[in-house]
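Bumping my old thread because nobody answered last time. Still need a sequence for this structure:
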């Protein structure tokens, strides 16, 4: 069975997509077979890897009955496939929310069809709570929660915990937070203080030792349809993402 990891936070713009793409690429570079599922109508993960192609099938089509194997695309990276997304996923959300059938486990059933083809399935989640997020939580096993180091780092965290508890109780008993990943760290007194206060906060025990430093290269990489691990593998952020991956593999007893 594939190990399924979702990147989630109820906050936007805090590094979910950058981190899920970096993990997917890094695992593929280590020889694991990886499927990245773009679970956001913005399609940023697809776009970051040059696979946001409106004319082709996307995740929305899986919910319309197109078989998942027709939707999966390969990428420039050996061992890495993607289920891309685009704005069509907004219609899917509307349709699922209106449905009177049970629809919270559809994505899980879709992914089960190809689970055995992969070592890891990585989900990039959207920043909003809706039926699509519930589907992502039902399909996933481990959650990584990126938090941006700013004044509002933990805003929404209690909401997130509550959502996870509801899904665990009713739909997916296996769901758990494997760790909280600080992102966009700058070497300033302020960020040092924010990091220290996070260590003493409710998430203290869940914090990865690794934090991801800010690098201008991260913002450049999508323009070349590449992850930071391909575009600038010696940048501070790429070095940190590789440490994060090592730490995660250790937590999964795979190091
Ligand atoms: N380590 C970093 N250094 C510099 N910029 C970063 C870093 N991590 C992320 N960014 C930038 O921050 C912005 C938001 O990152 P990202 O898209 O990964 O967040 P997100 O949580 O997925 O956002 P959304 O909620 O919109 O999906 C992007 O422009 C990205 O390039
Ligand atoms: Mg995103």
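Sorry it took so long. Here it is:
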């Amino acid at each position: 069975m594939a190990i399924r990891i979702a990147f989630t936070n109820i906050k936007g713009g805090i590094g979910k997509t950058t981190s899920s793409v970096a993990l997917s690429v890094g695992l593929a570079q280590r020889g694991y077979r990886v499927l990245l599922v773009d679970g956001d109508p913005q399609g940023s993960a697809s776009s970051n890897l040059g696979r946001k192609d409106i004319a082709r099938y996307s995740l929305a089509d899986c919910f319309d009955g197109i078989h998942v194997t027709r939707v999966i695309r390969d990428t420039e990276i050996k061992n890495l496939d993607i289920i891309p997304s685009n704005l069509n996923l907004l219609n899917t959300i509307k349709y699922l929310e209106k449905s009177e059938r049970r629809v919270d486990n559809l994505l899980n059933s879709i992914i089960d069809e190809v689970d055995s083809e992969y070592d890891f399935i990585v989900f990039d989640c959207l920043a909003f709570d809706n039926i699509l997020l519930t589907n992502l939580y039902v399909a996933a096993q481990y959650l990584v929660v990126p938090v941006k180091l700013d004044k509002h780092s933990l805003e929404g965290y209690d909401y997130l915990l509550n959502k996870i508890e509801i899904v665990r109780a009713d739909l997916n008993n296996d769901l758990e937070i494997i760790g909280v990943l600080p992102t966009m760290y700058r070497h300033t007194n302020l960020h040092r203080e924010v990091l220290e206060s996070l260590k003493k906060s409710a998430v203290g025990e869940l914090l990865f030792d690794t934090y991801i430093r800010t690098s201008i290269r991260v913002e450049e990489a999508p323009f070349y349809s590449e992850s930071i691990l391909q575009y600038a593998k010696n940048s501070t952020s790429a070095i940190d993402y590789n440490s994060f991956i090592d730490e995660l593999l250790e937590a999964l007893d795979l190091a």
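The mean pLDDT is 97. Let me know if any region looks off to you.
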